[in-house]
Design a protein that fits this description.
The chain is an all-alpha fold. It has one domain. It has three helices and no strands. The longest helix is centred in the C-terminal third of the chain and has 24 residues.
């Protein structure tokens, strides 16, 4: 059962990465990448690596997402 949950999380994470590539709006892409990082932290936790999961959640989903949002907010957004 645990393997099924891990595989489902990995497939959903892959879908989020593909959607992040396909979106034209950079802010949506950054949010999707943050969600994929949270899922990766969950996968690390289910693999019984809580120290790596906490680091991934803090750095990958937290700090990186905030830095990307700040960078995107400083760019011009084109409509259309």
């Amino acid at each position: 059962m645990e393997i099924v949950i891990q595989e489902a999380a990995l497939v959903f994470m892959f879908v989020l990465y593909l959607l992040a590539i396909e979106f034209r709006d950079l802010l949506y892409s950054v949010i999707l990448l943050g969600g994929a990082s949270v899922l990766l932290a969950f996968v690390f936790y289910t693999l019984q690596a809580p120290d790596i999961a906490i680091t991934q959640a803090a750095v990958g989903a937290g700090v990186s997402t905030v830095l990307f949002v700040i960078a995107v907010s400083r760019t011009r957004r084109e409509e259309g």
